[in-house]
Amino acid sequence: MLSRKIWGFVAVLVTGITAAIIINLNYYNDPDSAYNRSENNVLRVINPSDVNPKLVDPSMQDISRDHTIGDFSFLDQHGEEVTNTTVEGKIFVTDFFFTTCGGICPKMTAQLQRVQKEFLDDENFMILSHTVNPSYDSVKVLNKYANRFEADYEKWRFLTGEKSELYLMARKSYLVVPDEADPDFEHGGESDFLHTENFALIDPYGRIRGMYDGTNPDEVAELIRDVYDLKREYKLP
Fold first, then answer.
1. Any residues with CB less than 8 A from the CB of 102 and at least 6 apart, and which?
2. Quick one: residue 175, left, alpha or beta (phi over 0 = left, psi -120 to 50 = alpha)?
3. Which ranges of the chain have pLDDT less than 70?
4. Cα 198–94–155 angle (5° rounding)?
5. In this predicted structure, what is the pLDDT of residue 60?
6. Domain range summary for the chain, segments of one domain joined by +
7. Which pTM value belongs to this model?
8. Hey, what CATH topology would domain 48-233 get?
9. I need a labelling partner for 209 at 20 to 30 A (CA). Which of 50, 84, 186, 219 fits?
């Protein structure tokens, strides 16, 4: 009787392990898996002419090639300067938020937690989150917010700086928001206020390679898959 019980236990154990292996193999063989996209799948380079005109400054709408993000210099949640050099040669995701937002921002930041977890040990990947309300979101406030969402400092920086510079990056570099909120936006007009759910994926050359709804888990899953595509494209470990 004991022998039957032991063999029964072994049979159940083997069946469970076999099922786990099959499930695992199915995952890695899934063409939509982040780990098994076609090596020939190359993301397009996004230029201003490819984007909804409502999201692009009129002076840039006809630019169809060679668009890259502009130079920037902001302070992060530790009060350290973050510039283009910080992300030079890296893949990174960027978004715009504010800490007192009770609507889409917490959803977006929670989705970025997923992204951080996926690439936590990847030294060639970063996340840059920009406040759109720098008059309130000081370094201290950003640090508290970063801690709330368990942001790893080496991986995820929360940025503040001059309002006009932050908004210029959103509109003329990352192309994630319309320019129609305030005619005086380039001078940091008080009535201007950005509010966007868009994430932008940037390659090691500072080019936009993907845009996603940061409140949509399915689109964020696509973003994760696209990061793996870029890693293959640039032969990054």
1. none
2. left
3. 1-40, 179-192
4. 140
5. 87
6. 48-233
7. 0.81
8. Glutaredoxin (3.40.30)
9. 186
